[in-house]
Q: What sequence folds into this?
């Protein structure tokens, strides 16, 4: 049976939950066409997070990898376009590490583009009534680190596989404690991801609609 | 039997739905203690909206009135503190009227404060995991008009009744079409309103916690 | 000779400066038509701030009073439409007082509207190339307190005088220390205020253009 | 004599001015240490903009290249960290072209990092009282295109030269016509750039302070 690997991250930054894992674990064993979801919870730790993800990829040899992460302050599900080869931590990770301007892979390419059909996935989510957008930056913390590590590995994979990173807003219960912060209910994110996963499975070549930013 | 009156507003500003009415109608006939919810859908029309609300108040003689409205662009459920005696419409209402700097009630007071226990209601919503806040302005469009009209009437009511206005964010399906706009799922808003209504029924005198704004 | 009274506030909230006073003191003795500017620096203290302002009004018997204050987080010069009869302090004032939901004037009206020709003043500022807008809330801290106290006093004045409150953004040097905060240079604010003061002096009855907010 | 090349862009998106060129032309012939500023106004056109910039680089063989651009909606001077190999235009350029997901250089690297000492430059601007920050995305429009084209060329330059891209906010006169938009006065941006240029000239190896984003 084919596998879709969906990962979330443990809580960080003094949060009790991480919406990315709350979402991912609800998709465990879910069927999409002839593929089934496997999940993995990643530590919020530079280095280790990418290692764990790659181990899961090696075990499952999935046809699709969606790594999820929390984006406090964003109001929409964000499909990341690009991961860059830099760690620059504004806050410490869960092991207390706070690298500054350090390459993720020494000598690696400056960036990798997501290999997901981003525009088709966003369009499917919006059609499903879920706020979604392409994002031009995954930041420079553990989320970007995970995405870069994943795409660096997949670039050398010897089976057909597509992967990328998706940021999700705070849960309502998190935003309740943050003045001004937007949020999204688990059920809304799940409805969006279901539509996005089907779009990813059914789209060979991405559609040509803009998802750009002027600045 | 005692009544809680909850009103919503019809869609406006080219929207297909108005979350305030989507929420209100799901509370129809709901029981809270020994009180039952009655609902009313108001037109998005200066003058008429307040008249319809007052008619419903006269018919039901409720102990609690919650007038709901849509606040596109806000990320939290907002309990309005004050309504001001002015109509200043940035867009036309649903009858094409666009008053500028016109008093709602000629010779009326400059403002009315909500008679709801706002701080207790916000605290209950946050405890229920729902993003909520006190808001210092209901704008100058039909929502503020409705709130002012309601409080002007209730100030003269000859039975014990408390009332006020609550703004709710876009639904996810609305925000999906608005770049950058935050949203809140119906189920999240409902969970918050249930907690807020119980707090309103159980709070005689509001609690002393800040809900202010520096500017 | 006629007088225009312009007041600023001392620094608060751990800031080294308050842009409202930096602006006001640069207008000291400036001529506008046959009127000259007098200034006054108010303490950021509930009660005392309004007392000092009223003392200055009594001394100068100005034809125009512009009370200025700092609005960290706002990007435009904001002409406040209304002051409400409530103190609700999110942070302590400079005497350590932090009132919650306390009327400014016990038994006073719920609100006072600015008696400035707001729309004409905003239009003049925008024509001068300065970002400006009508604001529907002055908050519930010392700025709103000052505005309410001023308008409560002016409502009983026995000479022709108009007054109101204007919020100004952080100075660039303040915003440099606040992630994401917008700012405005002193010279830009001054150019705007000069245009606004001339408009106030030359406008008997305000113009009819919208300055409203939908929510 | 040594040269610092500073470029701006012509107006686009229905604007009458572009702050990047208003700033750049005021720096024309300015001296910094033993170097003098040369300037160039670039068209807001995919392809052509990068060609013109590279021509100017070839002519001047500068030791430092600062390409400036307008970032409507941003409140701080933004030093861009990275340019990505994609054009995805949300609006047409000034020749009416609107590419979607098209590589800037077919077969080129996914991204280039700025070769400016970003952290030292931001620190110098903040010390000068000018709001500034590192930005993790230059968007996917002509600004990112220019930055990628510049860095692709400089990567092969046979003389010591550093370069990158800096986004500046709207001018106050532009923001006056955009509800909610922050702005920055020309004099403030100039003060910041002077400090940043001196820091760039005096910093061999960038300082280790965070300029990262969590998401």
A:
């Amino acid at each position: 049976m084919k596998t879709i690997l969906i990962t979330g991250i443990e809580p960080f930054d003094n949060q009790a939950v991480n919406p990315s894992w709350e979402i991912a674990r609800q998709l465990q064993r879910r069927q999409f066409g002839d593929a089934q979801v496997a999940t993995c919870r990643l530590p919020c730790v530079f280095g280790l997070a990418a290692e764990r993800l790659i181990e899961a990829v090696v075990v499952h040899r999935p046809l699709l990898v969606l790594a999820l992460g929390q984006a406090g302050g964003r109001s929409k599900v964000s499909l990341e376009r690009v991961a860059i080869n830099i760690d620059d931590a504004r806050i410490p990770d869960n092991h207390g590490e706070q690298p500054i301007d350090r390459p993720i892979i020494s000598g690696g390419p400056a960036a990798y583009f997501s290999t997901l059909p981003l525009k088709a996935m966003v369009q499917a989510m919006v059609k499903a009534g879920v706020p979604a957008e392409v994002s031009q930056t995954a930041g420079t913390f553990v989320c970007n680190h995970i995405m870069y590590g994943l795409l660096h590995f997949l670039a050398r994979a010897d089976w057909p596989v597509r992967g990328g990173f998706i940021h999700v807003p705070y849960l309502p219960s998190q935003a309740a404690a943050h003045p001004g912060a937007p949020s999204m209910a688990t059920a809304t994110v799940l409805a969006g991801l279901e539509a996005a996963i089907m779009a990813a499975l059914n789209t060979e070549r991405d559609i040509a609609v803009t998802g750009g930013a002027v600045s």
About this structure: Residues 186-202 of chain C form the longest helix (17 residues). Chain C touches chain D through 24 residues (CB under 8 Å). Chain C has a mean pLDDT of 97. The CA atoms of residues 16 and 192 of chain C lie 24 Å apart.
